[in-house]
């Protein structure tokens, strides 16, 4: 397939997506106060050399902007906060955008990641050997700034902020330093709406989130940010509905390419971060759903680190209009308000003040999960594991075509906060049978809506009869009021997974279905 054909196919796929994806966050990622304060900040631009692209010997330039507070000096050094952009973006160069941080006495460096902005190379989606090295080179540059506080040679006092792709660099940078030096050079992280396992984010159970795959590829087209093989792989995934794993003759293998691009890889290698992390994740995010953040918090941090960390779920993130099955439309961050009296930026500043400067904690909620509900209330819990079961019997849905089916689970009032799942005996007589499941709330099956917009697929490649299965459900937080019910919603199709339903019409039948809920008891 030619590069031109790939580009045309991706543009067509993006145009045909069920809805235009948007990044909806309940706060401004960066606070922009009066320009007078920002005018006192010294701003310097620069670029550094990093490792060449595969097959090349030419160093790749990584470009950045440094913001130095007016009072920072060799005699009075300050901590540094690293920032980077989301997918398809570029670094921030306006000092007013970081005034909340520089006014609080932090230096800031914002950088263009490989393949974006003024930096060279192509985007390898946080490959440890490429983007991981870029972050390490950036940290080395920061360690040579005399006005930045240093904990030792090559070890500046360092925090990090940024969302989505700007959260991915934080984990690849911290884990690579841990792998190479035995400790992460970062002293604290504050990532938002980023991934744990890239493959499971883009294609849970091997079923591609086609709307997002097309959108992400289209965002990279104007600057040719992605390597050609990745474009080809995304077209293959959109055409087959399956995550490219190299099994098709001449096909690409994204499963192998992305295997080490995220915290999941390092966790498998036995590595854990022992630093405080403020992790923000979108409860209505359909690209990197809530479960991705929960898995990172549970498995990528040591127990000691979790005791010094905070998890916040807010209504927002990478959001598509949830039309089929029907979801909710809400953007809010009640948990940051509850914890810090403001938005996530205000929470980040207070978190970094303790993590980077020490002293008395001024925040509550360490070591716990704080999750927004669709009604914009905040549920705080110490565990997100499913501990309560509900027998719901037989759940049947058509494949390929049909409408969602809602099965009652529990009467309100009930509060659910965490990661639910199903166990059932599955019968699916067709080849490549797929169905999508999630939790919904309503007064009846007719008006039941997805709790926070997400479904997850069951995929049976070959016919099965009475096969015992554990089926993942999207992580949620919801208070079901009296007079309403919690439902299990089963659907043959999903707009986020457009075109990836069953290849043959038929039925998927779950018998002896048990819903396992992370129910929060008072």
UniProtKB/TrEMBL annotation:
Start and end residues of each Xaa-Pro dipeptidyl-peptidase-like domain: 64-310
Ranges in coiled-coil conformation: none
Family matches, as InterPro entries: AB_hydrolase_fold, FrsA_esterase, TAT_signal, Xaa-Pro-like_dom
Sorted UniProt keywords: Hydrolase, Signal
Pfam family, one: Peptidase_S15
N-terminal signal peptide: 1-24
GO molecular function list: hydrolase activity
Family: Belongs to the AB hydrolase superfamily.
Protein name: CocE/NonD family hydrolase
Species, as recorded: Nocardioides kribbensis
